Amino acid sequence: MTTETLRAPRLETPPGGRRGPRLPVRIRAGRQHHAGPVAYILLGIATLASLFPLYWTMVAASTDNTRVTQSPPPFLPGPNLFENLGKAWTDAAMGRAMINSMIVAGAIATSTVLFATLAGFAFAKLRFKGRNVLLMLVIGTMMVPPQLAVVPLFMMMTELGWGQKLPAVIFPTLVSAVGVFFMRQYLSDALPDELVEAGRVDGAHSLRIFWSIVLPVARPAMAVLFMITFVHAWNDFFWPYIVLDMTNPTVPVALTQLSAGYVRDQSVIMAGALLGTLPLLVMFVVFGRRIVGGIMQGAVKG
Amino acid sequence: MASHTSSAPPPAADKNAGPGADRRAGLLHRLDVRGAPYAFVVPFFAVFAAFSFYPLVYTAWISLHDVDLATMDIMEWVAFDNYTDLLTDERFWNALLNTVTIGVFSTVPQLLMALGLAHLLNYRLRGSTFFRVAALTPYATSVGAAALVFTMLFERDFGMINWALGAVGFGEIDWENHKWAAQLAISSIVIWRWTGYNALLYLAAMQAIPRDRFEAAAIDGASRWQQFLKVTIPGIRPTIVFTIVLSTIGATQLFGEPLIFGQGPNGISGGADNQYQTLGLLLYEEGWKFYHMGRAATVAWVMFMLLIIVFVLQRLLSRWRSARTS
Q1: Which residues of chain B lie closer than 8 angstroms to A88, CB-CB?
Q2: Residue B67, beta-bridge partner list
Q3: I need a surface site. Which of A8, B77, B120, B188 has the fewest CB within 10 A?
Q4: Do B57 and B96 reside in the same domain of the chain?
Q5: What is the bridge-based pairing of β-strands B71-77 and B65-68?
Q6: What angle do CA B226, B230, B232 make, to 5 degrees?
Q7: Nearest Cα to A152, choosing from A234, A236, A66, A239?
């Protein structure tokens, strides 16, 4: 943050970096005003509101049960962070939950990206009968709320012997309509028709074109879709809560047990909450900028 | 797809004769060009059909039966009894009303604040990436974690919010047991998690507004506030509609936040007096606490129909409004 602020004045483009050549200030003035102190103060408050609950999770997770249940509450970290994280990992099944969530979110994100890129490519660049109808159908599927499926799904999974098992959580979410739509929009713009045609002229079959021409172009969007899908799968709650139990939970399922009195120590509960969010926070610190870009891109074109 | 393959003549038998091989290659090529698109979109539709569409239809069928969780293969036909029972059940109307009020409490401030935040982020800023990522961080927080932290912050005896209220001279609030307080606390979790996300959607739309519209407004002497109202808001209208749709769907599905806020068995019933039980919680309670799968399916279908009604109303309203303005 600080380095960026220091570097910013030297850049030709504003830190947002969207515009290439500089435009005269007068023309710019119609749209992008420089932020005044009031804007910075308000943004500071918004940032504080966004980050404070997370900071306080860390504070509470680093104290102990006596301290955290006192009024006024603690505002500064205590010495017990790693001890509490360790307790949450073992006593509250968070260890098992983290591994399960890694498997579930990883599998769902991988398959969603693969199938969304395949379908997105077909919808963006290939001509076939019924394309528009099928695309409308994809968009229509976004309207179906997941609750509608849980009762029969539960019966289905019990019959398959998948109750309390991870495939029960993975299989129903292997694809995503939003993902298909996102990849279609991206490839429509980013993949030149000539490139696909050239591949055809060279005699490449469709799968070969997909592999050697589409995938390299699609890679940035695939990375963003992977991360966003991973976040959603990691946080998915309703269906995993129904079909899994505490012997084999994902992170959100384990966290409900924490709240339900499975663990009495409040600082260990907070350590569990911290642990359950940590992988996503790390991802945000490293790739936050790209995730932000992906969400904004999906919006502009959606 | 099958018709393409079957109507095609069988491939030529000769191994490497010039014209035959050419014809065969041409045939394969045509087959590939025609068939591949379907092969590429089929995985999506197959998974959707198996795990969303079929259950959707089957849910309707189950809702016409009595099914016990312990003996799910025995389905007793009861026609519309589940529906009449549900519609005469006080708990359903309570849950419906709670879903609506929590939905309004969480959606309206959320979208208004997102609009303001997007406007701020649209200024030329130092460290704009930092502000954007920070605004999005709550979105990366698990519902479970967010709900746990907020439950702690709203704790009656040692929670930070009551402490802060006390510090400025207000009395303690029993957030969990007081109906409106509980609903506001739950809404605040939703607001916290989704405001930044919506702000980024708005910001993206704001940046796509052609610059000359602002210039024209500025030349006409419009103040910044007037520009915001007359240019920005109409310019991002499709996105606003989109976020309203998304938030409405999200609000009808609210489940994890109230469940965790209730800390344990109280969570599923939405508080001791069902004071914050949502339709999602009612569905779960019917199915997995009372073992009435048929009734759970009924709640699911009623939720779906309500969603459809809301969207039809919304379409009618926007049509009526555009007819009035033009």
Answers
A1: none
A2: B75
A3: B77
A4: no
A5: antiparallel
A6: 100
A7: A239
pLDDT, one tens digit per residue, over B50-75 is: 998 899 899 999 999 988 888 888 88
Residues B171 and B311 placed together within one structural domain of the fold: yes
Convert the pLDDT of each residue in A105-114 to its tens digit: 999 999 999 9
Say if A195 falls within a structural domain: yes
pLDDT in tens, B212-232: 888 888 888 888 888 888 899
CATH number for the domain harbouring residue A287: 1.10.3720.10
Q: Would you say B255 and A238 are in contact if contact means Cβ atoms under 8 Å apart?
A: yes
> In whole angstroms, what is the distance from residue A38 CA to residue A25 CA?
21
When divided into structural domains, chain B yields a total of 2
Average pLDDT, chain B: 87
User: Which of B7, B152, B246 to mutate to test binding with chain A, by most A CBs within 10 Å of its CB?
Assistant: B152
User: CA-to-CA distance for B48 and B50, rounded, in angstroms?
Assistant: 6
B239 lies in the same domain as B316: yes
Same domain, B36 and B178: no
| CB-CB contact of B215 with A30 (8 Å) | yes
Name the residue range of residue A277's domain: 92-301
> Are B210 and B110 contained in the same domain?
yes
B102, B141: one domain = yes
The confidence score (pLDDT) of residue A23 equals 41
* Position B197 in a domain: yes
Q: Searching chain A, which residue's CA lies closest to the CA of residue B188?
A: A49
Please report residues of B whose CB lies closer than 8 A to that of A141.
48, 52-53
The answer to whether residue A62 is domain-embedded is no
Q: Which amino acid is at B326?
A: S
A102 class by beta-carbon count within 10 Å (0-12 exposed, 13-18 middle, 19+ buried) = middle
B67, containing H or E segment: strand B65-68
For the question of whether the overall pTM of this predicted structure is more than 0.90, the answer is: no
Number of domains in chain A: 1
Please indicate, yes or no, whether residues B31 and B91 belong to a single structural domain of this protein.
no
What is the separation, in whole angstroms, between the first and last Cα of chain A?
A: 31
Q: Which residues of B touch A180 (CB under 8 A)?
A: 44
Residues B125 and B22 in one domain: no
Query: Is residue A196 assigned to a domain?
Result: yes
Domain that holds residue B247: 81-325
> Contact at 8 Å (CB) between B132 and B121?
yes
Q: Which residues of B168-193 are buried (b: 16+ CB within 10 A; e: fewer)?
A: eeeeebebbeeeebbbbbbbbbbbbb
Assign residue B174 the CATH number of its domain: 1.10.3720.10
Specify if B139 maps to a domain. Answer: yes
Tokens of A118: 């395949």
Q: Is residue B71 part of a domain?
A: no
Name the one residue in this structure whose structure tokens are 């007081």. B178
Q: Is residue A256 part of a domain?
A: yes
Mutate which: A1, A100, A148, vs B, most B CBs within 10 A:
A148
